[in-house]
Specification:
This is Lipoprotein. Keywords: Signal. The protein is an alpha+beta fold and 195 residues long. 20% of the residues lie in helices and 46% in strands. It is built from four helices and eleven strands; from the N terminus they run H-E-H-E-E-E-E-E-E-E-E-E-H-H-E. The chain has a six-stranded antiparallel beta sheet with strand order 7-6-5-2-1-9, covered by helices on one side. A five-stranded antiparallel beta sheet has the order 4-3-11-10-8.
Length: 195
């Protein structure tokens, strides 16, 4: 019995040490097949992220920037700020509304509170005729007070095909911003944690 308590104490010690290293991170939520099936029936693109922040961070701002052929045309589209506790979730989905504009849903949940925003992107007509690719951060990133790109949805009418933004883009956006020129339209989901 004494040996079991020691093993348990060591396990608690090691897992609490790991939890400490998990502060100030954003990670892609690992969905079950069932959750993926549900999301695919109600949205064309969906992105879910968990975050853990130390107690110094007081709020989170999430927004979407829109680029056309690499040029920023709409900054902080769907901008939202919410006070945060130490952990929470960011959810972003889009729905193609046939020949009309795309619809977006953006939500932040933390500490039992949820804020959400939804609406159309009035300048998105015609995207349904283009090829789309999307991507997210590698499984997990560490953040500071600078903005980070969490996900992208990119559209192209290229006849030769199109590929997603590379992982390096999310790690160094400024150094890879020229990659956005390969797409007719690109949406970047961004976040900024504030103290």
């Amino acid at each position: 019995m004494k040996k079991m308590w020691r093993i348990f104490a060591l396990l608690v010690f090691f897992t609490s040490g790991c939890a400490f290293n998990e502060e100030n991170t954003v990670s892609v939520v690992d969905l079950t097949e069932r959750e993926e099936a549900i999301l695919s029936t109600v949205s064309d693109h969906s992105f879910l992220f968990d975050f853990t922040a130390d107690s110094e961070y007081k709020e989170l701002t999430v927004w979407v920037d829109k680029y056309e052929s690499g040029k920023l045309v709409e900054k902080k589209f769907s901008n939202m700020t919410i006070p945060i506790e130490q952990d929470g979730m960011v959810i972003y989905t889009t729905v193609n509304n046939n020949d009309k504009s795309n619809l977006y849903n953006l939500a932040i949940s933390s500490g039992g509170s949820t804020a959400s925003s939804r609406g159309p992107d009035p300048t998105s007509a015609g995207l349904e005729k283009m090829m789309s690719v999307w991507g997210t951060i590698p499984e997990k990133i560490t953040f500071g007070e600078e903005e980070v790109v969490l996900a992208s949805i990119c559209y192209s009418d290229s006849e030769t095909g199109v590929s997603s933004l590379p992982e390096e883009f999310y790690e160094n956006v400024e150094g890879h911003k020229n990659e956005l020129e390969d797409y007719d339209v690109a949406y970047l989901l961004k976040a900024e944690f504030k103290k």
